[in-house]
Amino acid sequence: MEVNDLESAWRAGKQFGYPLMVKSKRLAYDGRGNAVAKSEEELSSAITALGGFDRGLYVEKWAPFVKELAVIVVRGRDKSILCYPVVETIHKENICHIVKAPAAVPWKISELATDVAHKAVSSLEGAGIFAVELFWTNNGQILLNEVAPRPHNSGHHTIESCYTSQFEQHMRAVVGLPLGDPSMKTPAAIMYNLLGEAEGERGFYLAHQLIGKALSIPGATVHWYDKPEMRQQRKMGHITIVGSSMGLVESRLNSLLKEDSSDCQFKTVLPRIGIIMGSDSDLPVMKDAAKILTMFSVPHEVRIVSAHRTPDLMFSYASSAHERGIEIIIAGAGGAAHLPGMVAARTPLPVIGVPVRASALDGLDSLLSIVQMPRGVPVATVAINNATNAGLLAVRMLGFGDADLRARMQQYMEDMRDDVLTKAEKLQKDGWESYLNH
Ligand SMILES: Nc1cncn1[C@@H]1O[C@H](COP(=O)(O)O)[C@@H](O)[C@H]1O
């Protein structure tokens, strides 16, 4: 609501309730030109701090957001519209600090955010890039916050993470070329704004220290804007880190920002496969999955998680595995082997179940407990005690997006064939009795 004097501002406060967001009509960007007022008293001081009513002010109801989201939208001269993946923007003191792509939000929220952004840009005129900023509120709504008709900070990650960057896309749109593919070519990206930490030389020194560290981070690209003057909180550049999962790029950013980070921390290798088992008594079987993954150089972790003895741990492991960058879970258990199924019920990741032969019933109990899953919750079950196959199946699954792993799997199969052929030749040459006796 537009406000012209204190009276109308107070009226707005009564109508919307506090806190309120007070915004200046002009020169409001990067934390400038807006202020939060938590009470009537704060409203007067916020108005004064923004330079009074002469600059043109309006107040907005505070949006109780869970996350701030943004969608880069492009519209061509022919009015065709494409949307980039929804990102999460994290602000510090009203300045964009970090952008995570894609945003970790439920699929329905991401669909809704894209729809709102699409509709917002459809209602406007012009060709080129539009950045649509949104709030995801605690009651599951998506509120439109702002539309910036230009390439935007929330889209800088697209330079490294999307098939067509927002800048190339803008040029394509305004000159009337076909629009490019806005989808991500890397599973995850994080963009960190290099804000001035101090005035003048000291600020340049601090920024360059961080840049120096960033250069040794795998997947990181530094952008320095070469602005002549360094000021506190001024956007001086940004660093984008791309990688195979949000967990990985976040951990790389964290090690970059740590004061005492040394080079080796940057090379953090996150496990891609989680091998879990109901008891340490399963380890002699489950170690075979780990052996295969080590042979294929696939980073993995090995944990004891019991569905019955440590149900809370099982729940938290299964709920968070995908956020930590785990891509596949191999779960082994014996007896009433509920671990693979219960984990599959809680994670969106593929789960491979290994029935472990426990002391009674020869493993048939484990096999049936794992394989007879209800419709809707799949577990890929391998043969009793065959953790080797669980490891190999996991490698094949990863090979879908990894040509190197696929080639190594092909080599493994050829080696296996040669091994059998060598044995067959020996059997044929020596005869079965001699073969058995040596
Ligand atoms: N089903 C189950 C739940 N928690 C452990 N188990 C399984 O029980 C078997 C026997 O475990 P323990 O040797 O610790 O008694 C192991 O195969 C283990 O996976």
From TrEMBL:
GO terms for biological process: 'de novo' IMP biosynthetic process. Residues 3-175 form the ATP-grasp domain. PANTHER family: PHOSPHORIBOSYLAMINOIMIDAZOLE CARBOXYLASE, PURINE BIOSYNTHESIS PROTEIN 6/7, PUR6/7. PROSITE patterns: ATP_GRASP. In the C-terminal section; belongs to the AIR carboxylase family. Class I subfamily. Keywords: ATP-binding, Decarboxylase, Lyase, Nucleotide-binding, Purine biosynthesis. Pathway: Purine metabolism; IMP biosynthesis via de novo pathway; 5-amino-1-(5-phospho-D-ribosyl)imidazole-4-carboxylate from 5-amino-1-(5-phospho-D-ribosyl)imidazole (carboxylase route): step 1/1. SUPFAM superfamilies: Glutathione synthetase ATP-binding domain-like, N5-CAIR mutase (phosphoribosylaminoimidazole carboxylase, PurE), Rudiment single hybrid motif. This is phosphoribosylaminoimidazole carboxylase. It comes from Citrus sinensis. InterPro entries: ATP-grasp, ATP-grasp_carboxylate-amine, ATP_grasp_subdomain_1, PurE_ClassI, PurE_dom, PurK_C, Rudment_hybrid_motif. It catalyses: 5-amino-1-(5-phospho-D-ribosyl)imidazole-4-carboxylate + H(+) = 5-amino-1-(5-phospho-beta-D-ribosyl)imidazole + CO2. The keyword ATP-binding applies. Gene3D superfamilies: 3.40.50.1970, ATP-grasp fold, A domain, ATP-grasp fold, B domain. The keyword Lyase applies. GO terms for molecular function: ATP binding; metal ion binding; phosphoribosylaminoimidazole carboxylase activity. Coiled coil: none annotated. Its EC number is 4.1.1.21.
